[in-house]
Amino acid sequence: METVREFKDIFEKVKAGVRLDAEDGLRLIRSHNLPELGTMANFVKRRLHGRKAHFTHSININHTNICVLACKFCAFAKKKNSSEAYALSVDEIERRVRQAAAHGVWEVHIVGGLHADLRLSYYEEMLRRIKKACPGVLIQAFTAVELDFYARLERVFVEEVIERLIDAGLGGVPGGGAEIFSERARALICAPKVSAERWLQIHKLVHQAGLRSNATMLYGHVETPEERVDHMMRLRKLQDETGGFLAFVPLAFQPDHTELAHLPRTSGVTDLQVLATARLLLDNFSHIRQLWNYVDEKLIPVALEFGVDDLGGTNFDETIAKAAGAQGRGFTYEELLGFIRQCDCEPVEVNSTYTEIHKECLVV
Ligand code: SF4
Question: So where are the chain's domains?
Fold first, then answer.
């Protein structure tokens, strides 16, 4: 193991299982001492997961791009009268899931815009039809922002929305919509969106209802290093209370075709600072996920040495990141397996609750 000098005090804490504080987090996230960041993050990742690299074989369905909001970082949303606007029928969604399941997909990930004409019954039917057609698939769907929107449309408490969707087949909640918790930054990039408090409250309710969820952080736009650390600290606090989060998923801002297109893409250094800091600060999160389609492919082997144990899904049909010019070219199932092995890691297929899937198929 490489020597850690600058961060000797922090590494001592990490090795002894002593919790890092926000000040430690700030030193880490600002540091250009990548060898030491990597050594420490990799130490924690190896302690938790050895050489495992988790992934899901998944289909991503974006049921509509029509959205009442217009977040400045979003290249996906369209207004109802746009020629590019769409909303999928439940029949079409079922067809896509059947087709994906025939190719071995076990995981369905569904998120979309906030469409004022789609009622809760549409989402309930969507889940029921998927579960009826393919009972074995796990459905992770609807961000906290979407759940809040459905509750307001139906004029019911969000607890009722969560309960009804679970009853219809919801198996987990994705981490989207968290963006960055700082009120200052939120006001600049997504002013009318639910507040950080509401996002956290909804995840707490999801956990109390018995589901697990993930947590994202959108970085690389107007936020400061302090605000990134604050975001992680707020997630860690809720995780202490509920234990309901599975993965932390940092998302590098993709500027193309957004109102913030003048901003540069994140550098590899920033991406690695965020990943290593997350792995070290979020001591109560089991998994750090780097979605392979959000960063340059060349960075992924390095990310796997900076705390990442999960590369997300094969995600065919993903449109949100593509709309903003995400860099990853895409992997087939076999390519992703081969890629993980080339990175000297062991590919482990899971669903979004990290239940291992037909592992025998992965043995070479
Ligand atoms: S990020 Fe989500 S809520 Fe915001 S405009 Fe895009 S689809 Fe709508």
Answer: 36-362
Contact 297, 327 (CB under 8 A): yes
Q: Which atom of ligand 1 is nearest to the CA of 76?
A: 6
Contact 27, 7 (CB under 8 A): yes
Return the residue whose CA atom lies nearest to atom 3 of ligand 1.
Answer: 69
Helix (H, G, I), strand (E, B) or coil at 155: coil
Ligand 1 midpoint to CA 316 (Å) = 20
Nearest residue to 358 (alpha-carbon basis) of 100, 106, 103: 106
Least confident residue range of 1-10, 20-29, 60-69, 164-173: 1-10
Ligand 1 close to Cβ of residue 306 (< 6 A): no
Please tell me the residue having the least CA distance from ligand 1 atom 4: 71
Distance 116 CA to ligand 1 centre (A): 13
| Distance in Å, CA 328 to ligand 1 centroid | 21
**Tokens standing for residue 286:** 């089991």
Express each pLDDT in 209-248 by its tens digit.
999 999 999 999 999 999 999 999 999 999 999 999 999 9
CATH superfamily of 36-362: Aldolase class I (3.20.20.70)
Give the separation between CA 160 and CA 158, rounded to whole angstroms.
5
Ligand 1 neighbourhood includes 320 CB (under 6 angstroms)? no
132-164 pLDDT, tens digit per residue, is: 999 999 999 999 999 999 999 999 999 999 999
